[in-house]
Write a structure and sequence with these properties.
The chain has helices spanning 5-19, 43-57, 78-84, 96-101, 172-183, 195-203, 219-231, 261-275, and strands at residues 31-34, 40-42, 63-67, 71-75, 86-94, 107-114, 121-128, 134-138, 143-145, 148-150, 162-166, 188-190, 209-212, 235-237, 256-259. The protein is an alpha+beta fold and 276 residues long. The chain folds into 2 domains: 5-150, Fructose-1,6-Bisphosphatase, Chain A, domain 1 (2-Layer Sandwich), CATH 3.30.540; 162-275, D-Maltodextrin-Binding Protein, domain 2. The protein starts with a helix and ends with a helix.
């Protein structure tokens, strides 16, 4: 049985109710073991994930859950989950460092796929854990913020474009130097701390581009945001300029460039030039 977008929204809202009162507290910041995604888990991460797992286990669903902390886990009947190819790709709390420090920019990200690859993602929800705003999309049906349809901006490089730049610390100055001609063309640089939300900011037209060069960027961080961005008329591609359509797995990590359509040609040209 296919999971509905309303089910995904309610799942995200349950996380909001559990997590929102903890934002910016000492309890939230208590450290645990390193999660399957590679980061050290904090108490607030585990609480968010437990809400999702417990809700799914009570909902009579059969699926493969790919989640930031636990990795991969079958919910319900594993054989039925494999047969129906239901997959849920979740980051229970994207922007954990913001969350524990009280910076109001963190989210829960939930993507639903019928199949084994990124291209098979059919539905997506990203809920802002500070404001309760819900970004959501169904493939082929557009993207929405709460009940309002959203679309990327139509600004081009000659106008006041906002973008986010996420670089690895290794060879930081070298990378900045290579990218300086490109950076100078943008009006403002933002570094926000939740990849899922930033993709949604581009989708709603509040930002124009996100250049994420970190090879440690995880599928769970961006799976939902990718569909929302595409359904809002935006584009996302690899740093080699190719379509991103890898297998759905906790181990999948990739850098990327996301933007509105007016910037696509410029970024492809400039980025390839700077990498050569």
């Amino acid at each position: 049985m296919e999971i509905s977008i309303d089910f995904l929204k309610q799942l995200a809202i349950k996380v909001y109710h559990a997590v929102n009162p903890l934002l910016g507290t000492r309890e939230a910041a208590k450290k645990s073991n390193r999660g399957a995604g590679g980061d050290v888990s904090m108490e607030i991460d585990l609480i968010a994930e437990d809400v999702i797992v417990n809700s799914l286990e009570k909902s009579n669903v059969n699926l493969l859950l790919i989640s930031e902390e636990l990795g991969e886990k079958h919910i319900g009947d594993p054989e039925k989950a494999k047969k129906n190819q239901n997959v849920l790709i979740v980051d229970p709390l994207d922007g954990s460092n913001n969350a524990v420090r009280g910076v109001p920019y963190c989210s829960v990200s939930i993507a639903y796929a019928l199949g084994k690859n990124i291209e098979n993602i059919k539905k997506a929800v990203v809920l802002h854990l500070n404001t309760k705003d819900i970004y959501w999309a169904e493939k082929g049906r557009g993207a929405y913020l709460n009940d309002k349809k959203i679309h990327v901006s139509d600004l081009d490089i000659s106008e006041k474009c906002f973008f986010e730049l996420n670089l690895p610390m290794k060879n930081l100055m070298e990378n900045l130097q290579k990218l300086s001609p490109l950076i100078r063309r943008f009006y403002r640089v933002r570094i926000m701390g939740s990849s899922a939300l930033t993709l949604c900011q581009i989708a709603r037209g509040s930002m124009e581009a996100f250049i994420n060069l970190r090879i440690s960027n995880r599928l769970v961080d961006v799976a939902a945001g990718m569909l929302i961005l595409k359904e809002a008329g935006g584009v996302i591609f690899s740093i080699e300029g190719a379509e991103i359509d890898q297998k759905l797995s906790i181990n999948v990590k990739f850098p990327f460039i996301a933007c509105n359509t007016k910037l696509e040609a410029f970024l492809r040209k400039q980025f390839v030039k700077n990498r050569s």
